[in-house]
Specification:
Shape: elongated
Order of helices and strands: EHEEEHEHEHEHEEEEHEH
Helix content: 25-40%
Structural class: alpha/beta
Radius of gyration: 19 Å
Oligomer: single chain
Number of strands: 12
Strand order of the largest sheet: 3-2-1-4-5-6-12
Strand content: 25-35%
């Protein structure tokens, strides 16, 4: 079996380390080069910008920062390489660039690379469809104290999926301290907790009269995201230009 050769953006970060370990334990993937704003001496070449990359690769995985997206997309389009975008917090302009790039190359974009999280989203959509507007919906996400964006991209991904399912025009509420009013029926509440070394926890609560239904996912380590990203990279190699995500990969499309 031919290994998928990967260029990893954000190689010196936590996810870079986790993904390298996962790749080393597999015979299916090989991280052959990296990109990092502060390149270091390593067993593989590490470049400070995509323009410097001179290594043959099959796909790109990006776990760096959303501000790196435009340059990476430009590089991927010029080299006709598929790219897996795992960063979150993109601006409207960056999101538009991602959609535009998918017209030229395969672009796999997910705000969470865990297969378990994507199963949780399907369960949340099912619950929302069954429970309807009789239940209030609250999402609580918890992450480590180094995480920059809040709420998490995953929490927003869950909220978007549920909002597309319910039969009312959902409005996201991120804070309540400035409000002195009862909860509106069309709200989806989203709360963020930051502390310690929490890898990632997400709870979707459906709160009704005299009962609460909670769907939860907890990541014990970053390995779940690393394995998902590697699998996504192999999945889009050879695919036609277009937008890809976890639901399409799981369905085998």
């Amino acid at each position: 079996m031919k290994e998928t050769r990967i260029l990893f953006s954000g190689i010196s970060g936590r996810m870079g380390k986790a993904t390298r370990t996962a790749a080393d334990e597999s015979c299916e993937y090989k991280i052959v080069a990296g990109i990092d704003v502060v390149p270091s001496v390593d067993t593989i070449p590490i470049f400070s910008t995509p323009d410097e990359v001179n290594v043959e690769v099959d796909a790109i995985i990006d776990f760096s920062h959303h501000s790196a997206t435009p340059k990476l997309l430009e590089f991927a389009i010029n080299k006709k390489l598929p790219i897996v975008i795992c960063t979150t917090g993109h601006t409207e302009e960056e999101t538009a660039l991602i959609k535009e790039a998918a017209k030229s190359i395969p672009v796999f974009y997910s705000r969470n690379m865990s297969i378990g999280i994507n199963l949780l989203i399907e369960l949340a959509k099912k619950a929302a469809a069954v429970l309807g507007s009789d239940f209030d919906i609250e999402i609580v996400e918890k992450h480590h104290n180094k995480k920059l964006d809040a709420p998490s991209g995953t929490a927003l991904m869950i909220a978007d999926a549920v909002a597309d399912t319910v039969d009312f025009d959902a409005e996201y509420t991120y804070e309540r301290q400035s409000r002195r009013e009862p909860r509106r029926k069309n709200e989806i509440g989203i709360s963020a907790v930051r502390g310690g070394t929490i890898v990632g926890e997400h709870d979707i609560m459906f709160c009704g009269a005299d009962e609460i239904i909670t769907v939860s996912h907890s990541a014990a380590s970053r390995d779940v995201f690393a394995r998902g990203a590697l699998r996504a990279a192999a999945y889009i190699v050879g695919k036609p230009a277009g937008s890809y995500d976890m639901s399409r990969m799981i369905a085998g499309e």
